[in-house]
Amino acid sequence: MQNQVANHHYAAYLGRAEPGLLAGVVNADLAQTGIYRHSPWYARGLVALAGPLFFNSVEESAHNAVHACLRDDWPTATFWEKPGAFERRSSIMFDETATPRIIDASRKITGV
Fold first, then answer.
1. Percent of residues, the chain, with pLDDT higher than 70
2. Domain map of the chain by residue range?
3. Given this model, what pLDDT does residue 39 score?
């Protein structure tokens, strides 16, 4: 959850600090990537049974990010909540004084 807050703040920061740059955050949800193929048999079984109910295809999970790269008709600092629904988006807006504190904390944690 904290990383999502930091991602949103960073997109808002980039939208303000870098004129002409489009910054966005995409919720890719759970994608059927095959990441569980090396998991124990019971985890693979659970994914095989529940996966079709909860996982998106890789194409659906990547849809909004790909469209954002191919188009420039969306406002910067945008959040796409639902995979596969490019037009369903919202603007990211924060108190401008909070964002630098979040970015500084992220830099300290990551060492960047």
1. 98
2. 2-110
3. 92
Instruction: Report residue 97 as tokens.
Output: 């004084």
User: Positive or negative, the Cα torsion across 100, 106, 111, 112?
Assistant: negative
pLDDT confidence of residue 5 = 83
The answer to whether residues 79 and 23 touch, using CB atoms and an 8 Å cutoff, is no
The CA distances from residue 64 to 30, 61, 88, in Å, are 14, 7, 10
Q: How far are the Cα atoms of 1, 66, 75, 85, 100 from residue 61, in angstroms, in the given order?
A: 19, 10, 21, 10, 30
Q: Tell me if 63 sits within 8 A of 90, measured CB to CB.
A: no
Which pair of structure tokens corresponds to residue 74?
A: 């969306």
Residue 1 pLDDT > 70: no
